[in-house]
Amino acid sequence: MSIASPSPIAIPIPVRIPLREVLPWAVFIGVLAVVLLYFVGAEQGATSLVSGHYVHEFVHDGRHLLGFPCH
Q: What is the pTM of this model?
């Protein structure tokens, strides 16, 4: 009987992604994060961009979960 030796495992080579292709998406996600942070953390009262309390009530629980005071 012969014992079969295991075949070598092929290690995948990482693909390089140029910064030109990643940068627009990184900027978009950063702007989206800042806008989301504004609406969750500051959209109420004097700094309100949307009239009424619709945005405040929609993100109310998230605001408390993230530690933003609102009362």
A: 0.62
